[in-house]
Design brief:
Length: about 375
């Protein structure tokens, strides 16, 4: 059986969408605690459990954490797809046995349960945990550091989501991005970075068959406050995963599949082995550019202006009644020649009206755009 065939019929359908908090994963953890060791090495600032799952019994120790940023849930969904895959008893049994013997994989499915509940990047004290690696001022940061020191991993996986603003020069969106974080200001290619780069090259090679040209490389400026940079500096290879946008997939149900494949490829359950991979190929992966918006309306006539402009709209994610609402906000107005829209429309010179009575400005929340003269709807959410 091909892996995508398995995925289509067997992914973890019990969790989905963008809003994933502790209460969504508790039923799954209850089930998996019969099979894996699940501990609670710490509590969040608001006193929620921070569970840690231990998988396998091998000598290669890997430590991963998802939802360090509470509103970045795609990799959490992929982790539960991964758990479901390695727990089934029908397919890829030889590869799964090998994985369980070779590795011990410790993973925090939700490192920031308070942020997950509130659907915020930060924790309950408005602290970005990925800028707290040095100060360790928050309980969640302390919990991760404690486990890092205790299990002494030989590889770390820092699992995140990126916004839908990233793409490449040729106009493709960045569906998955990776980074081997720098270990110093000079961005030296240290031994631990080389290992991280090699692993990224391996995952990228596998992903190319599904999303050719849609895998990117993040900016590697060094920041000691970031967890990945800190661990890399300590000599432990660390990989940043960024789940991004795939065509119309605002729930990120397709991107989760690519993160799932990335994990399988990393652990060599699918795809090849990494021995022959040159780390230098990492630099051939295109760098992420901030060149995308969710929607771009081209050739719009603004009152009192002769030149036609483009209007870029970006969705803000808002938690309402346990669901994520995508609220459109004007992000830019101008010629926007170097920008791409996940969706684009040509207004063909029409002068427009919006639901907001004010003059069109960046930051305005809009839900419809109407042709001023014939009153036809150009954009509606
Ligand atoms: Zn993040």
């Amino acid at each position: 059986m091909e892996i995508n065939g398995w995925y289509r019929d067997h992914f973890e359908f019990r969790i989905g969408g963008r809003y994933i908090a502790m209460r969504h994963i508790y039923p799954l953890l209850d089930m998996y605690k019969l099979k894996y060791e699940i501990s609670v090495p710490g509590l969040s600032e608001m006193g929620q459990d921070i569970p840690l799952i231990k998988i396998g019994g091998g000598s290669e120790i890997v430590l991963g954490w998802s939802q360090m940023h509470g509103n970045e849930s795609t990799t959490t969904k992929a982790l539960f797809d991964f758990l479901k895959f390695i727990s089934q008893k029908q397919y890829f049994q030889t590869e799964i046995e090998e994985f369980l013997h070779k590795y011990t994989f410790y993973v925090f499915p939700i490192l920031n349960p308070d942020g997950a509940k509130l659907y915020t990047r930060e924790n309950a004290n408005n602290i970005d945990l990925n800028r707290d690696a040095k100060r360790l001022s928050q309980k969640e940061s302390q919990c991760l550091r404690k486990i890092f020191d205790a299990v002494k991993p030989s590889l770390c996986l820092n699992l995140h989501d990126q916004r839908s603003i990233y793409g490449f020069k040729d106009g493709k969106p960045a569906t998955v991005s990776f980074l081997a974080p720098a270990a110093d200001e000079k961005r030296t290619t240290t031994d631990s970075r080389k290992i991280a780069m090699q692993q990224i090259v391996k995952m990228n090679t596998f992903l190319q068959q599904y999303i050719p040209g849609q895998v990117g490389r993040y900016d590697d400026s060094f920041n000691e406050a970031c967890v990945g940079d800190t661990f890399q500096k300590a000599g432990v290879p660390t990989i940043l995963f960024e789940a991004g946008h795939f065509n119309r997939d605002y729930q990120r149900e397709t991107t989760r599949e690519f993160i799932f494949y990335s994990l399988l490829s990393l652990f060599e359950i699918i795809g090849g082995k990494s021995q022959s991979i040159r780390y230098g190929q990492y630099f051939d992966i295109p760098e992420n550019l901030k060149n995308y918006n969710d929607f771009i309306l081209r050739n719009v006539k603004l009152p009192d202006e002769k030149k036609l402009v483009s209007i870029a709209v970006q969705y803000e994610e808002v938690l309402r009644n346990d669901e994520i609402i995508f609220s459109p906000v004007i992000d830019a107005i101008g010629n926007l020649k170097n920008k791409f829209g996940h969706k684009e429309k040509d207004a063909k010179g029409a002068e427009i009206l919006t639901n907001s009575q004010d003059k069109l400005t960046v930051g305005t929340n809009i839900s419809e755009i109407i042709d001023k003269f014939d009153k036809s709807i150009i954009y509606f959410q």
